[in-house]
């Protein structure tokens, strides 16, 4: 196992009817900005409950954070935060609203050009402080409710921002707030949580026994409850399990002390930025092809995945690995998520633009060891096409 530091300060407030507790969770004298998306939280009554929970505090609302939150939109929120002297941010929504709120928190006190914050990849940007933030999560998928990461869209690219100051102080996870999700978002969420787990697990062996067994537990659980929660959106126990699985997949625990490979996410981000393909869908397209091209490198962990997650014990190594890749694709398809790039209205001739975008964004040395160059990315994308 590699050396690691692990600290996760987010207080999770899990379960039914917890929004009334906002009054205890948010500082009494806070001036709060409540940030949300395109209106689902208004339509389904979550916003009213949040505002009631905040009681007599001064509240400023900021609506309109779009899926794949845009820098320009977030800058509008930042201007209001500065003008109104807001001192606490409460995100109410999915990953996009939570991530957008994290960027507002990071940039509000920043002196320089706010876009600089987006230029540090997985290394922390040079911020000295951030506004305190918290979330009410309405979509189980990204893990943003319990991690220090955000992804912001800027000038045609998607840029990660990671900083320990961006952990939410608390996150309210009430599974019943997610019952209103359309099936496509539930399916996207299952795929996103599944691939977060894979990108920290199907890498190189590192004797991370606790991390591996936990990852396998999350994967098996998603395979079990994904279809159940899709078919019965108001089955509380199934949805509660999905919510906790998605949070557990990306709160740092399974990735501590083991190699990580974010290739599928980095290529997927370009598909979203160029063609508007949903984040979860972009991962379902890319993941099987990453494995096909990287079978040698990931041999040991792919075999482990085949045996422990899919119970594949027949055939030689290659056959087992191929069967595990096929099972993964079938799982995504069974949730209604298409796994071929050609099925999303993209022309084969547009593959060049994806490779170009990877180059423009410096995504030229991906994988757990940084040896995945543009020529391999091109082969992955070509394989994912049809
Ligand atoms: O905008 P509203 O009207 O709220 O509608 C949203 C949006 O259209 C809707 N929705 C959310 N909760 C709902 C609901 N509709 C009905 N009922 C509810 N309870 O769902 C739509 C999609 O929302 P979005 O927040 O965009 O989805 P998701 O949670 O999948 O977030 C995706 C974003 O997260 C980033 C992605 O890149 C993408 O930008 N990621 C963030 C990560 C992180 N912070 O650690 C890691 C992930 O890998 C991911 O990259
Ligand atoms: Zn993701």
3D structure, described in words:
The protein has 386 residues and is α/β, with parallel strands linked by helices. Strand 6 and strand 7 form a beta hairpin. Helix 9 packs across helix 10. The longest helix has 23 residues. The chain is globular and about 65 Å long. The two termini are 38 Å apart. Bound molecules: 5,6-dihydroxy-NADP and zinc ion (ZN). Zinc ion binds next to helix 6.
Which topology of the largest domain does CATH recognise? Dehydroquinate synthase-like, alpha domain
Strand order of the largest sheet: 1-8-5-4-2-3
Quickly count the domains.
Answer: 2
Average pLDDT over all residues: 98
In short:
With 386 residues, the protein is of the alpha/beta class. It folds into two domains: 11-177, Rossmann fold (3-Layer(aba) Sandwich), CATH 3.40.50.1970; 183-385, Dehydroquinate synthase-like, alpha domain (Up-down Bundle).
Describe the secondary structure blueprint for this structure.
Elements: E1 11-14, H1 22-25, E2 31-35, H2 40-43, H3 46-53, E3 58-62, H4 71-84, E4 88-93, H5 95-107, E5 133-137, E6 149-154, E7 157-162, E8 170-173, H6 183-199, H7 209-231, H8 236-249, H9 263-275, H10 279-293, H11 299-310, H12 317-334, H13 351-360, H14 374-385
Parallel strand pairs: 1-8, 2-3, 2-4, 4-5, 5-8
Antiparallel strand pairs: 6-7
Helix pairs in contact: 4-5, 6-7, 6-8, 6-10, 7-8, 7-11, 9-10, 9-13, 10-12, 10-14, 11-12, 13-14
């Amino acid at each position: 196992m590699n050396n690691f530091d692990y600290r996760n300060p987010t207080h999770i407030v899990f379960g039914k009817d917890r929004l009334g507790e906002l009054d205890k969770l948010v500082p009494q004298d806070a001036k709060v900005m409540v940030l949300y998306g395109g209106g689902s939280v208004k339509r389904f009554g979550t916003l009213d409950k949040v505002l009631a929970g905040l009681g007599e505090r001064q509240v400023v609302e900021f609506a309109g954070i779009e899926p794949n939150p845009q820098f320009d939109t977030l800058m509008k929120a930042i201007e209001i935060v500065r003008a109104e002297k807001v001192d606490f941010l409460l995100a109410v929504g999915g990953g996009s609203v939570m991530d957008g709120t994290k960027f507002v928190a990071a940039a509000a006190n920043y002196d320089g050009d706010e876009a600089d914050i987006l230029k540090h990849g997985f290394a922390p940007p040079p911020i000295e402080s951030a506004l305190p933030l918290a979330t009410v999560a309405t979509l189980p998928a990204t893990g943003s409710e319990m991690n220090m990461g955000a992804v912001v869209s800027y000038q045609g690219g998607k840029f990660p921002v990671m900083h320990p100051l961006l952990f939410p102080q608390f996150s309210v996870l009430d599974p019943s707030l997610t019952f209103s999700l359309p099936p496509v978002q539930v399916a996207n969420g299952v795929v996103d949580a599944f691939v977060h787990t894979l990108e920290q697990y199907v890498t190189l062996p590192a004797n991370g026994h606790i991390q591996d067994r936990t990852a396998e537990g999350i994967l098996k659980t998603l395979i079990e409850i994904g279809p159940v929660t899709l078919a019965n959106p108001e089955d509380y126990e199934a949805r509660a399990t999905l919510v906790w699985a998605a949070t557990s997949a990306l709160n740092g625990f399974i990735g501590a002390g083991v190699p990580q490979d974010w290739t599928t996410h980095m290529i997927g981000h370009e598909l979203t930025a160029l063609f508007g393909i949903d984040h979860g869908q972009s991962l379902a397209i890319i993941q099987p092809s990453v494995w096909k091209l990287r079978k040698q490198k990931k041999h040991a962990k792919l075999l482990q995945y085949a045996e422990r997650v899919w119970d594949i014990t027949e055939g030689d190594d290659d056959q087992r690995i191929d069967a595990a890749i096929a099972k993964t694709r079938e799982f995504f398809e069974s949730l209604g998520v298409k796994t071929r790039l050609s099925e999303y209205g993209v022309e084969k001739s547009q593959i060049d633009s994806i490779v170009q975008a990877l180059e423009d964004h410096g995504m030229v040395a991906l994988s757990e060891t940084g040896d995945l160059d543009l020529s391999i990315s091109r082969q992955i994308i070509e394989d994912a096409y049809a």
